User: What shape does this take?
Amino acid sequence: MKRRIAIVTGTRAEYGLLRFLMERVRDDARLELQLVATGMHLSPDFGNTVTEIEGDGFVVAERVDMLLAGDDPMTIAKSTGKGTTGCADAFGRLRPDVVVLLGDRFEILAAASAALLMRIPIAHLHGGEISEGAIDDSMRHAITKMSALHFVAAAPYRKRVIQLGEAPERVFDVGAPAVDAIRRIAPVARDELSRDLGLPLRAPMFLVTYHPATLSDTDAVASVNALCRALDRFPDARVVVTKPNADASGRAIAAALDTWAATRADRVTVHTSVGQRRYVSALRLAHVVIGNSSSGLIEAPALRVPTVNVGPRQDGRLKAASIVDCGESEDEIVRAIEKARSPAHAEVTRTMTPPYGAATGDSRDVAGAIAEVLATVPLEGLSRKKFHDVDWKEPSRG
Assistant: This one.
């Protein structure tokens, strides 16, 4: 009998990371793919990206509508509760053997809560990481403790998951799914991509994504307006912007970006979603990636594109030498962009070692490794865990 593997996806970015795992599960004779779409995928405000999933040939087994109107913290909390109820209903109908979840967002916390309480084993991707500037950091560690299997992106993250009490034999360092994915994606030609995005992609080209730093005390709209003013100080640059996720203040940031771009249509284009292939193609052409998305820390270094990482959202993650960290003021961002574009930093970017793997010269098959574990791991007793203690020393108080 095939093992039923429910994979839950709630955002465009996370779908891009899971897509090739979905293909491996779907095509494995030992496994049955049960795809659950939720969150932003079902919202017109965020591009109704479930159509992209279906356009890639996947059958969506269940749709869990969970996003309520608004982006304040209370609305996000209520959406999480709605998502937990919807995922419980979906899992009740699908009866999966394992639920696969990636990352740290509230949609994924909702799915994890339902699976845990229904005693369905969870396989979690991208655990053990730290993003101190976002509430996602706490949700990621919570999902780790709910999960039975762990697929991490780097060796230090495996160590941290074990430090959280997870059994070492259940923690697999498989690498970053994003790097695995970009190796497989055929790029869109520059002229075609320019037509698709509605902007001639002449040099220099900046690729920008700015999400709310949900634990920051700084006003999100003030921060994104400072970013926009900094970008205006590079009037020769073509700027491709992808909008933020459905986090607290996400809609306010998106509205501010639309207002800014409206009077700069000759050099700025803003998109709710461009799809994975166009995003990776734009990334390959970019001279600098700017903002606070994890793609600036994982995919950009893998392609040897410099990154300006703005603000505290990604504090604590492994970072390549190609990344320039900066504060959220206009002048700090400008100085960081100038450094990222300098010949000296270009040489650093060319010669550094990407901590999550490189797009060329790395033969790891992340999706295949995960699918093989899902097909072969013993299911009996998988939901029952013992806390794995690690040796430690009492810190000195002197």
Residues 8 and 36 are 5 Å apart (CA to CA).
